[in-house]
Design a protein that fits this description.
This protein has 4 domains: about 50 residues, no CATH class; about 170 residues, Immunoglobulin-like; about 120 residues, Immunoglobulin-like (Sandwich); about 90 residues, no CATH class. The radius of gyration is 65 Å and the shape is rod-shaped. It has 6 helices and 38 strands. The strands form 13 sheets. It has a 6-stranded mixed sheet. The chain has a 5-stranded antiparallel sheet with strand order 24-19-18-29-30, with no helix packed on it. With about 575 residues, the chain is of the alpha+beta class.
Length: about 575
């Protein structure tokens, strides 16, 4: 801050000194202004008077509010004012160029000679015997004085010039073409000569001071200054950040003081907290990006940019004047900023104007309709409760059990289907048999586990088959030898029996029972024990035969596998 004050002070002093030098070099107040000629009257009238003023130097001199005064021979005061170089307002200044004349005439002379021009006019009152004329500047200081006749006390050098007779004028002597004599002794400097035929006027010019509050005359507005309607000029504002475009009268929000009067971004951290890439219905005006300000101060978004896309190829600025309050969530829709959040996969990055990364979201992947990608409790997740402009909320829990799950009226699924616990609908059973590789030699596939098993290991652990049985090579189970023999090898059934086509065994032929016209009588004759045992044996034999018949394919496959294992070269 101290360096800044020194810089402003040095700049102001430099401008002030420069202004003074410029003004003084072109419009210096100088004693070179002299009264060069006086006419006390002429042959036509004693009132035909004039006074001529000359800039005896080469530099323009300001003569604003300078006056010509006349006093009698005995007065040592300035006397009464004849005429003055006056201006309409204080901002106007009058200048007499170097080696130029200003011409003042009496009103009577102006009337007598209308073609005679002048810079000033006055009422005639000059005495033709004795008197003196003074030139007084705007501050009341005497610049020059000419006395004539008996005005010894009021003449320069206490030596007045001679009285000019009618038809003559008091004329300051000439040293060179442009320089008149000025020894401050009137009697030495003036001579009596005839008037010239031509008198010059109109050299006095105006200069408007554009800055009434600055020292000197500012004919041109100083570089960088501004002026108000009252003519008050203000110095150029100090550029707080010389490295930024335009003039920064204050350090912009988000910037801090750097080196060499430069400003660097010192942006407070902001967070991207929520995205809605796949709005329910139309996307226009419904997609949004949410920003959160975790800081204790309001932050302008002027120097922040949004980058969108997997490669961040698109960037967007915030609407003009956007700012986010302390602790505020602020959402921008794709109407506020013309961005596009694709429905498939993308992410958003928040950066400063100098490319510094402020915050970045993880990549979202195919969000569902109306599902927001939000930062909740420090974890990015999907939520079915979008909250643009406010704190984020987790998804509402939706029951996974449908009403149909408790509906007892559901039809049972088919044999090749099962009921999905998620949808409560029937779905086809999937099989993996086509994807299974063939078992190796000496192995077979278990129906229970669908895995390959060693035939040899199974054979070792199997109990030997009973007499009259063999092991089915397909199923590795025992089966009756007679169950697989042809009908020609079977003994013929007894009278009253027939062969069962399913079991290939003999069974009694059911006889036709005659109908009688009376109820049968119940007998109490007990059965013989041997009949019971034979019946049990027959039932058991039938059951065993039926089992062998049902497992015949498995028994055959097992026998084949056993044979291939025992005799691999055959």
């Amino acid at each position: 801050m101290a360096m800044r004050k020194l810089y402003v002070l040095a700049l102001s002093v430099s401008i002030l000194v420069t202004s003074l030098l410029v003004v003084q070099s072109s419009h210096a107040i100088s004693s070179n202004i002299v009264i060069s000629q006086i006419q006390l009257g002429n042959t036509a009238s004693a009132s035909n008077e004039f006074i001529e003023v000359y800039n005896n130097g080469a530099t323009d001199v300001e003569i604003t509010n300078w006056c010509l005064d006349y006093a009698s021979a005995t007065s040592i005061q300035n006397g009464s004012k004849l005429t003055c170089f006056l201006v309409e307002n204080n901002s106007i200044h009058l200048y007499l160029p170097g080696h130029s004349f200003a011409f003042a005439i009496s009103n009577q002379l102006a009337t007598a000679m209308p073609s005679l021009g002048s810079d000033l006019k006055f009422s005639a009152k000059l005495s033709d015997t004795a008197g003196h004329v003074r030139l007084i500047d705007g501050s009341g200081v005497e610049v020059d004085k000419v006395g004539w006749g008996t005005t010894a006390a009021s003449a320069e050098g206490a030596s007045p010039a001679a009285v000019s007779p009618v038809g003559k004028v008091l004329n300051r002597k000439t040293i060179t073409t442009d320089v008149l004599q000025d020894t401050d002794v009137n009697s030495d400097d003036f001579e009596v000569v005839p008037p010239r035929t031509i008198y010059l006027y109109g050299s006095v010019y105006e200069v408007q001071d554009l800055c009434s509050n600055l020292a000197g005359i500012q004919a041109v507005l100083p570089d960088g200054y501004s002026v108000d309607i009252a003519g008050v000029c203000s110095p150029p504002p100090v550029d707080e950040c010389s490295n930024l475009p335009d003039v920064q009268t204050d350090i912009p929000g988000g910037f801090v003081r750097g080196d060499s009067n430069s400003c660097v971004l010192g942006l407070l951290p902001l967070q991207v907290t929520e995205l809605l890439p796949n709005a329910t219905g139309i996307d226009d005006g419904n997609e949004f990006i949410e920003i959160y300000n975790p800081n204790d101060s309001d932050i302008s978004l002027l120097y922040f940019f949004l980058y969108i896309g997997s490669d961040y190829e698109h960037f967007y600025s915030f609407p003009s004047g956007s700012h986010i309050g302390a602790g505020q969530y602020l959402a921008f829709s794709n109407d506020d900023i013309k961005f596009t959040l694709v429905n498939t996969t993308s992410s958003v990055r928040l950066s400063s104007m100098d490319g510094t990364l402020i915050d970045e979201t993880p990549v979202y992947d195919n969000p569902g309709d109306g599902m927001a990608w939000a930062l909740i409790d420090g974890v990015w997740q999907y939520t079915n409760q979008p909250t643009p402009g406010s704190a984020n909320l987790s998804s509402l829990v939706v029951s996974t059990v449908s009403e149909a799950a408790t509906d007892s009226s559901l039809e049972p699924c088919a044999a090749n289907q099962y009921r999905s616990p998620d949808t409560n609908r029937c779905r086809l059973l999937t099989t993996t048999s086509s994807a299974l590789t063939l078992c190796k030699d000496g192995q077979y596939r278990s129906e229970e586990t669908n895995r390959c098993r060693s035939i040899a290991s199974d054979v070792v652990t199997l109990m030997p088959c009973a007499e009259g049985e063999e092991r089915n090579p397909d199923t590795n189970r025992c089966r009756s030898v007679t169950a697989v023999l042809g009908a020609s090898d079977l003994a013929p059934c007894k009278a009253g029996q027939e062969r069962n086509p399913d079991t290939n065994r003999c069974r009694n032929v059911a006889s036709t029972i005659p109908q009688v016209g009376y109820a049968p009588e119940q007998t109490s004759q007990s059965s013989n024990n041997y009949i019971v045992w034979w019946s049990l044996a027959g039932v058991g034999l039938v059951a065993i035969s039926y089992g062998i018949w049902e497992w015949r394919q498995e028994i055959i496959r097992f026998g084949q596998k056993l044979a291939s294992f025992l005799y691999p070269n055959k």
